[in-house]
């Protein structure tokens, strides 16, 4: 496996926000989103066996929550799926952060999938693998990262058309953060004002949760490994 970093921090997004979590960040991504805050994952990293990754996770915590993220972790599906099964057998709770561009049918049922459907201004629209809707369950979550009203309207219609709120545990609407944001630990780095997004959600009655990247309010938005 090609691994960028393994570390323990606070989960910053999703319905698990605020929970201590071990992050296993895998290298490489086949998408190039305009607002991507992890471009450092596109190349590099270190080769680790699944055994080595498992031992690193065990050293950080013998139990608890583990998230596989990237990059795009499903590019390493062949190695990742058996590792997930091993960690599940040890009693860990697992999250998978993925773009949804790769098929998800082989992901173990007990892994919570947090799937990022790309909006128009991401620069990667129409990349979501629509058959993945059949593999989402009541524990999973779908996320939309929004930079303006057009992104919001796309996400609102996608949620309505596919009845996502009936299928998954949470639908997340998250304001995109500027890649250049640093220093200020406040909403000034958001490309879409969270208050404006909250007002749109309330006005339209969208069955979604306003999701902020709380790690960017706790630490410098540019900081890695948190």
Describe this structure in words.
By secondary structure, the protein is an alpha/beta fold. Helix content is 25%, strand content 21%. A nine-stranded mixed β-sheet has the order 3-1-2-4-5-6-7-8-9, with helices on one face. α5 links the parallel β8 and β9. The relative contact order is 0.16.
Note the main attributes of this structure.
single chain; 226 residues; alpha/beta; nine-stranded mixed β-sheet; 21% strand
Please report the number of helical segments.
6
Low-confidence regions: none
Task: Estimate the helix proportion, in percent.
Answer: 25-40%
| Rg (C-alpha, Å) | 17 Å
Strand order in the largest sheet = 3-1-2-4-5-6-7-8-9
Tell me the distance between the termini. 21 Å
Structural class: alpha/beta
Number of strands: 9
Oligomer: single chain
Order of helices and strands: EEEHEHEEEHHEHEH
Approximate strand percentage: 15-25%
Shape: globular
**Averaging pLDDT over every residue, what do you get?**
95
Largest sheet: 9 strands, mixed
Task: Itemize the secondary structure elements and their pairings.
Layout: E1 2-10, E2 20-26, E3 46-47, H1 50-60, E4 65-69, H2 77-89, E5 93-98, E6 112-116, E7 141-146, H3 149-162, H4 164-167, E8 170-175, H5 194-204, E9 209-210, H6 215-218
Parallel strand pairs: 2-4, 4-5, 5-6, 6-7, 7-8, 8-9
Antiparallel strand pairs: 1-2, 1-3
Helix pairs in contact: 1-2
């Amino acid at each position: 496996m090609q691994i960028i970093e393994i570390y323990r921090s606070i989960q910053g997004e999703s319905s698990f926000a605020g929970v201590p979590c071990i992050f296993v960040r895998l290298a490489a991504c086949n998408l190039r989103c305009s607002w991507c805050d992890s471009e450092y994952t596109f190349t590099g990293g270190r080769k680790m066996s699944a055994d080595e990754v498992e031992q690193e996770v065990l050293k950080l915590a013998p139990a608890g929550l583990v998230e596989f993220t990237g990059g795009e972790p499903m590019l390493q599906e062949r190695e990742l799926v058996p590792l997930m099964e091993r960690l599940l057998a040890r009693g860990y709770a697992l999250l998978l952060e993925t773009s949804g561009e790769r098929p998800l049918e082989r992901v173990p049922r007990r892994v919570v999938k947090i799937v990022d459907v790309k909006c128009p201004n991401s620069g990667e629209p129409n990349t979501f693998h629509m058959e993945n809707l059949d593999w989402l369950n009541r524990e999973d979550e779908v996320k939309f990262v929004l930079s303006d009203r057009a992104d919001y309207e796309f996400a609102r219609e996608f949620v309505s058309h596919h009845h996502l709120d009936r299928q998954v545990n949470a639908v997340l609407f998250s304001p995109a953060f500027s890649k250049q944001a640093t220093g200020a630990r406040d909403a000034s780095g958001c490309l879409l004002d969270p208050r404006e997004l909250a007002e749109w959600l309330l006005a339209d009655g969208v069955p979604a949760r306003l999701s902020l990247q709380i790690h960017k309010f706790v630490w410098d938005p540019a900081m890695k490994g948190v």
